[in-house]
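Example 3.2
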Amino acid sequence: MSSFDEYSFQLSVTHELIHQYSDCHIVLGGDLNADFARSGGHTSLLGDFCSQAGLLPAVQHPCSRVDYTYNFGMKHFSVIDHFILSEQLFRQTVKYRQD
């Protein structure tokens, strides 16, 4: 099984769980190997998954100031670690804390 197929399978399993508990708030977090600022196989799968499941990545919130979550030799930067939230959580609970 290719990594693309495995990624797609894991998203489908997650989607089924979300569907089973449709009355719950959802928070998914982790290294999702996708960067919404770039195009790519995993990113398009994750974007489609979010749209179908009614989820929104916290990094896309207007108050988000995340530059990167991963770097390779301080030369290549990406946002691959994510919190993905149900729409109500995204709209009502994400806040920017200014230090």
